[in-house]
Amino acid sequence: MADIPATPPPGVAPATDTGSPAPAVDPRSLHRFADFYPFYLSEHSDSRCRRLHFLGSSLGLLCLAAALWWRQPWFVLLGLVLGYACAWIGHFGFEHNRPASFKRPLYSFLGDWRMYADMWRGKVPF
């Protein structure tokens, strides 16, 4: 599938030749999630990065289910480690940017689940 078209939110520079947006906006300046989410998507323009996010989120959900099923809370920690490892490999290996979670952890966490749902619904391409 084609990558997400470069439609950055106001104040975000267009994508660079690597496919990642130029760091023209500080995500901390985006105070509403509705403003942050387009920025979040612009930080995930490489389909390999999005796929790794999807894999990490899926593994996180499986680990959460395992924690509940076997009543072993360490599965939750494993899910977080696997989820973030997949995401960071996508950012550092393919997207060549720093995850927004370093500056906006809550919005980034919410953005990941929104993108995950949007990928299931076909609104964001794999």
Automatic annotation (TrEMBL):
<keyword id="KW-1133">Transmembrane helix</keyword>
<feature type="transmembrane region" description="Helical">
    <location>
        <begin position="76"/>
        <end position="94"/>
    </location>
</feature>
<keyword id="KW-0472">Membrane</keyword>
<feature type="transmembrane region" description="Helical">
    <location>
        <begin position="52"/>
        <end position="70"/>
    </location>
</feature>
<keyword id="KW-0812">Transmembrane</keyword>
<dbReference type="Pfam" id="PF06127">
    <property type="entry name" value="Mpo1-like"/>
</dbReference>
<protein>
    <submittedName>
        <fullName>DUF962 domain-containing protein</fullName>
    </submittedName>
</protein>
<dbReference type="InterPro" id="IPR009305">
    <property type="entry name" value="Mpo1-like"/>
</dbReference>
<feature type="region of interest" description="Disordered">
    <location>
        <begin position="1"/>
        <end position="22"/>
    </location>
</feature>
<feature type="compositionally biased region" description="Pro residues">
    <location>
        <begin position="1"/>
        <end position="12"/>
    </location>
</feature>
